[in-house]
């Protein structure tokens, strides 16, 4: 699946539906499908909300590739430089209602993906995220 | 599918909200709005049960809303109890340690037992 969307929230959710459709196949476990949706939502919503503070129109490219061993998600955007791996983890002790709850989305994304790589080149940010398509072993 | 919200307040001390679908950055606004009508129905010190049996998916935006709801109830000396989270929701709760384990129940029977116990502690 390859998509290019404008930096708007409604387009992010259309992209999530498309991605979920592309993952609706017997060799991708439903837990993996939900994981990809969550990581996509957290990263794309973050990019749209914070990546273009001057309000300019931007482009986000989403490339999703499924093989039997791995689900590979690649995101490219022309937003401000942002490395999702280079962020302090949120404070997780105590009651969520009594603490600052910023940074939760990125924390979730980092914990759920099998692997995340970040690079920045002349075109902008590039994030590659890998997932395990098989059912997770029950603990 | 997006988010469907139903609620019932059989007594002033106890309300139940059922969530079905996804609680995410697209739907948390309608959740917040619906809950604005429900929380005042719960008396100070009452219990709000959020039944998650049919909630398929939650993201950080949904967690934020649940956290605000718990805070609102807490400010009225009330409690928010979460019932029967499904695998994706449970996984997200576990990762962010969002909810004290004592406030999540796997079944209605378990929840009733807890509420009976609390009731006995108050009246007994």
In words, what does this structure look like?
The complex is a heterodimer of chains A (139) and B (124). Chain A has helices spanning 9-22, 30-50, 104-112, and strands at 2-6, 59-66, 71-77, 115-121, 124-131. In chain A, helix 1 (9-22) packs antiparallel against helix 2 and helix 2 (30-50) packs antiparallel against helix 3. Chain A is globular, with a radius of gyration of 15 Å. A five-stranded antiparallel sheet of chain A has the order 1-2-3-5-4, with helices on one face. With 139 residues, chain A is an alpha+beta fold. Chain B has 124 residues and is an alpha/beta fold. Chain B contains four helices and five strands; from the N terminus they run E-E-H-E-H-E-H-E-H. Chain B has helices spanning 28-38, 60-75, 87-96, 108-123, and strands at residues 3-11, 14-23, 47-58, 79-83, 104-105. The radius of gyration of chain B is 14 Å and the shape is globular. Chain B starts with a strand and ends with a helix. The model of chain B has no long low-confidence stretch (mean pLDDT 87). The interface between A and B is medium-sized, with 24 and 26 residues.
């Amino acid at each position: 699946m390859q998509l290019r969307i404008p930096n708007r929230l409604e387009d992010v959710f259309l992209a999530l539906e498309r991605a979920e459709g592309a993952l609706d196949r017997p060799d991708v476990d439903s837990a993996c499908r939900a994981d990809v949706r969550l990581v996509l939502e957290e990263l794309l919503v973050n990019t749209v909300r914070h990546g273009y503070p001057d309000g300019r129109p931007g482009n986000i490219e989403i490339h999703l590739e499924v093989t039997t061993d791995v689900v590979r998600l690649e995101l490219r955007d022309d937003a401000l430089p942002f490395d999702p791996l280079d962020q302090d983890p949120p404070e997780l002790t105590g009651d969520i209602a009594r603490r600052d709850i910023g940074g939760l989305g990125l924390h979730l994304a980092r914990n759920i993906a099998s692997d995340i790589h970040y690079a920045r080149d002349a075109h902008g940010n590039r994030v590659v995220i890998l997932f395990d398509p098989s059912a997770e072993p029950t603990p | 599918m997006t988010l469907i919200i139903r609620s019932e307040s059989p007594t002033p001390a106890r309300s139940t909200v059922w969530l079905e679908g996804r609680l995410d950055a697209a739907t948390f606004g309608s959740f917040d709005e619906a809950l604005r009508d429900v929380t005042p129905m719960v008396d100070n010190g009452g219990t709000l049960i959020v039944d998650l049996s049919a909630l398929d998916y939650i993201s950080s935006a949904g967690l934020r809303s649940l956290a605000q709801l718990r805070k609102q109830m807490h400010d009225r000396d009330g409690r928010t109890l979460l019932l029967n989270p499904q695998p994706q929701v449970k996984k997200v709760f576990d990762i962010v340690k969002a909810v004290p384990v004592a406030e999540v129940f796997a079944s209605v029977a378990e929840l009733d037992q807890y509420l009976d116990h609390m009731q006995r502690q108050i009246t007994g």
